[in-house]
Amino acid sequence: MVEELMALGAAAVRRLGVVASLCGAACLEPGGPAPDKGAVACVRDGDCAGDERCAGGYCEKLSGTDADVTRPRRPAIVLLTESVRFVDVGPGRRQTRTVRLTNHGDDNLLVHRIDVAGDSGRVRVDPAPDGFVLVVPPQVEYALTVTFVGSDGVAFVGSLNIDSNDQALSRASLPVAVQYTGRPFLILTGDEAGQHAENLADKAVDLGPQPTGLAPPHRFFLKNLGIGGAFAVLEPPRLVGDAGFSVTIRPAPDLDGRYRLGRFAAFCDTIADCEGAADACRGRVCVQADLPVDELVLEVVADPGLGQSGATSLQVRYGTPNGAVSDEVRVSLTARGVAADLFLDPVQVDFGDVSVGFPQSRLVEIHNLKSAALSVTALDLLGPAASGATPLLRAEVPQGAPPFVLEPMATAIVRLDFVAAAANLGDTTATLAIETDAAALPYVVAITGRSRIGPDLVTVPLLELDAGVTHVRRAATAMLRVGNAAEPTADPLRLTAVHAASTHGQGEIRVSPVAVDLAVYPGDFVEVAVECTPAVIGVLEGIVTLESDAPDNPARRLEVRCEGIDPTLTLGYESLDRAGVGTFQLGDDHPCRDDAASYPSPCLDVGRLYVSGARRAPLTLGNVGVGPLTVRAVAVSPADAGFAVDGAFPLTLAPGSGAEVAVTFTGGSATETRGAVLAFDHDDDDTAATIHLVASTADCGGTLRGCPAIAECVTTATHDACCRAYDDPRACGPSCAPCPAKSHTRRACVGDACAYECLSGWHDLNGNGDGTGGSIDDGCEYACVATNAGVEVCDGLDNDCDGLADNGLVLFDSLGAEAPQVCTPGTSAGFLGWYQEADFGSVTAVGGSAMELTVFPGRLYRSDPLGPAGDVDWLRAVFAEVDACATIGFRMDMELAAPPGTRLQMCGRLHGADVAPLFTLPCDEIGGEPVLDVCAVADGVTAASLRFEWPESCGVADDRVLDLRVQAAPGATGGAAASCAPYVLTLSGARLY
Q1: Distances (CA, A) of 415 to 349, 363, 393, 397, 796
Q2: How far is CA 84 from CA 147, 377, 402, 437, in A?
Q3: Which of 153, 187, 380, 588 could join 584 in a cystine, given CB atoms 3.0 to 4.6 angstroms apart?
Q4: By the 8 A CB rule, do 246 and 322 touch?
């Protein structure tokens, strides 16, 4: 019913309302003449010619009063894409698709929400309205990019939903589907159980000593821990390398000679947890015919030969069922061929340096490589290290002291502990003798070691090394003291390595080379230079690691930091402006231009003065960079040009600060022009700072232009009275009176009169002090920088610097045509729409939720040159009754959300059935605008709300017209009265009973 009413247009709705009000429910019986099937089919009025309307799905000519009714403009969303499908998306992979839509209507389509139902955030739509609205003008095609990133190997089917202001199709949807392929991932492990067993892929495994001719098999397990349930297709595992290795794979391969492994899922607590033909649950893994389910068992036998060492690579190539073999698992295997006897590993143990208080341990493995069991009857430690009142060595067998039995191919472990003592310093030896029932002589392991008092590594500073502040790309060096704090009888400290690395910021941290054989004796220190070189402004942090032979802290880590700064010296000319001295660029008419080759820009004209006179011109040195700047000195070249700089050097400038120095010129010969260059020596080598100077002298034979002697004049032996040049603002006109300084102006003496010009960034709003020769009482009082090329736009700024912000604007809303400032029914952007019972949804309890009808984004502009009071928005919505005997009540809610910092007022009136059926209510009531019933204010935090309710009477027209006005709240001024940011007006409706 909603789409049919929208297709009829304003005239049809008005007519339905009138008929229903005249004859009641009896007029709404079905039947009536059928439409002309030869007419053009249509969905909306926009599908028909300009003099036609869409009625009952076909275009018909407008005639009579119908032709005089303004047909409301409406958007119409049409999806040009039928569905979105992502195919073969593997985990971590990204795919994009394009969704195209068009606005088939004749008004702007406003898309205010896009979401994907059935997804958990893996589908992204760009652009996606989040706090703003996508605008699609009529007959314009728009493209959305939909991106999916695979994550968990699970497919899904959902829908892409687009919510807009299309009243006929407020939510447009299209299906979204994702199909995963998954991928296998093989691990090779020595543990048949456990989802997280150690993966031996790309590792080296030493199979140890193998008895020649009796080598046992070593079992490995191959599992598929892939994603998405995909099978792994395996080539037969192979051995690549030395001879003497063989591998057996169980179970047998498939008919094509390859193997297939599904994802490992054969965990169990009991046999009931196993599927298929599994016959046992062993170690929490389902077992079938003595083999674990979902695994391959690889049994490797190594027999490199007596006295030989062998190595091989166990390789397994695999891929997906539909793809080529592309992945590989490989493990490096080594083994030694030994005699079938009792094998000791190792047969020599060297403890090296063992410090007092830091015992060391070593393990000796006893392998029974015989084909029969043997008994270990005794373990004895013999020699200097094992004798005396405080022996340094002790031996322990974890599985118990002898005698004990070693089965064939079994292994026993002997743990040797070396405990250094201060009473037994120096080298020592011992022997581990192992006696068995299978040999007349014991098996022997030789043991050596050295007992010592170890060094104690200390650093100054202890934990952090701050290299301070340095210029970008320059190294800051900090010295790190490394010492040995052990007692005097301790060993020297030896640094084995020093490393440095940056951890935060951009730059490099380095340390000076340290000799690895350098010995630091107890109580001594050595210095290590650490360089910190930042590449950008900001903090650079890193770590310096010292490795040594100290037993308690062999590796000491210190944090290193420095801060990069980039100060920049600039020459500020504001001080010259205040003094009335001009700064010039090439091309201006000033004395610097007399010899452009010698005095290029920038150039400071110190001025003209009389012979033997002196003149001072201020110059500001500023630091516009980051970090402090030091100006070490300033040089004048040539030195005899008559120029000098007064200032205390070196001079340190904090960031953003400045200091003023004075440039002095002392006159020499008459009518002479001199030039020089000032070069500032400062610590920012990347930026040179120079300024070119020029000044001239003139001969004065008494007074100039009637200028008497004043304080500024210089008296010499040959000149009784002289004054400054005629164009000096400090001696202007016949009286030589100085031109008074005015705020934010540059003064000059032009002829015999003072003239003023506003400094850059300052403006004169009252006509004074702008160089026109008028009154200069207040100078240039308005600080403003022109923006947008001096053309006013609605941005809260004074773009043309005339003292008014956002003045003289053409009222236009970028979200649509500006809502009218006078109440004119049917205006496109101000018209909120036509509604009827079906638009209000099902019956809602009083005070319950309502159906959202429309969301209108509008703006209020500053448009009055005398203040922000000009803009008013009028809006209208119409309720047209269709079922005249529904005996239900209705409600309309209006909510106005104002932009932050503003105060807006919303007022409304609901016109009743006595005037509503015509839908042509005039906006002037007794010569004015409609009398509004209720008002509310939105302050940018709390929204303004209005509510109207009315009953429906059987047989009586219950049509309504809602008029709304949005304007600045009473008493609101300045930025609180209007804003370029959009307000949001939400209109909702509900059926009450």
Answers
A1: 11, 5, 10, 6, 83
A2: 10, 78, 75, 79
A3: 588
A4: no
Question: What's the token pair of residue 539?
Answer: 């903090």
CA atoms within 13 A on the CB side of 349: 28
pLDDT tens per residue across span 724-752: 444 566 666 655 567 777 888 877 776 66
What are the two backbone dihedrals, phi and then psi, of residue 728, each rounded to the nearest 5 degrees?
-85, 125
755 forms beta bridges with 748
Do the Cβ atoms of 356 and 453 come closer than 8 Å? yes
Q: Any idea how long the chain is?
A: 993
pLDDT for the residue numbered 702: 43
What six digits make up the tokens of 578? 């205040």
Hey, how many other C-beta atoms are within 10 angstroms of the C-beta on 106? 17
Q: How far apart are CA 439 and CA 376, in angstroms?
A: 10
Residues 6 or more apart whose Cβ sits within 8 Å of residue 313: 239, 240, 241, 330, 331, 332, 333
Do 261 and 234 contact (CB within 8 A), yes or no? yes
Which of 318-327, 403-412, 656-665 has the least mean pLDDT?
A: 318-327
Structure tokens, 440 = 């007349």
Nearest Cα residue to 655 out of 684, 632, 635, 633: 684
> Cis peptide before 216, with omega less than 30 degrees from 0?
no
pTM to 2 decimals? 0.45
Start-to-end CA span in the chain (Å): 20
User: 971: helix, coil or strand?
Assistant: coil
Return the residue matching tokens 């407008």.
62
- CA-based torsion, 63, 64, 70, 74: positive or negative: negative
Candidates 311, 333, 303; CA nearest to 241 is 311
Upper half-sphere CA count for residue 674 (Cβ side, 13 Å): 24
Dist. CA 437–CA 416, nearest whole Å: 23
Lookup result for tokens 């201006």: 588
d(CA 828, CA 875): 10
* Per-residue pLDDT tens over the stretch 455-472: 999 999 988 999 999 999
Q: Which residues of 954-982 are buried (b: 16+ CB within 10 A; e: fewer)?
A: eeebbbbbbbbbbbbbeebeebbbbbbbb
CB under 8 Å to 710, separation ≥6 — which residues?
723, 731, 736
In the DSSP assignment, the letter for residue 65 is G
Over residues 412-432, the pLDDT tens digits come to 999 999 999 888 899 999 999
Instruction: Give the pLDDT score at 429.
Output: 94
Q: pLDDT digits over 248-290, tens only?
A: 999 999 998 999 888 888 888 899 888 877 889 988 899 998 8
Placement of tokens 């993966």 in the chain: 199
Torsion of CA 388, 391, 394, 400, to 10 degrees: 50
Burial category of 120 from C-beta neighbours within 10 Å (exposed 0-12, middle 13-18, buried 19 and up): exposed
Evaluate the omega torsion of the peptide bond into residue 488 and state whether it is cis, within 30 degrees of 0.
no
DSSP single-letter state for residue 11: H
Tokens 């088939």 identify what position? 104
User: Is 50 exceeded by the pLDDT of residue 13?
Assistant: no
Per the structure block, which two tokens stand in for 180?
A: 């995963």
Confidence of residue 6 (pLDDT cuts 50, 70, 90): very low
Among 443, 214, 205, 450, residue whose Cα is nearest residue 346: 443
Q: Are 559 and 465 in contact (CB under 8 A)?
A: yes
Q: Could you report the per-residue pLDDT of 792-828, keeping only the tens digit for each?
A: 777 667 888 877 776 666 555 544 556 666 665 555 5
C-alpha span between 241 and 223 (Å, rounded) = 24
Longest dimension (CA), the chain: 135
Q: Among 123, 241, 104, which Cα is nearest to 178's? A: 123
Q: What are phi and psi of 263, to 5 degrees?
A: -65, 135
Q: Tell me what the mean pLDDT of segment 475-481 comes to.
A: 93
Q: Are strands 457-460 and 426-436 parallel, antiparallel or unpaired?
A: unpaired
Residue 154: how many CB atoms within 10 A of its CB?
Answer: 15
Written as six digits, the tokens of 365 are 């493995």
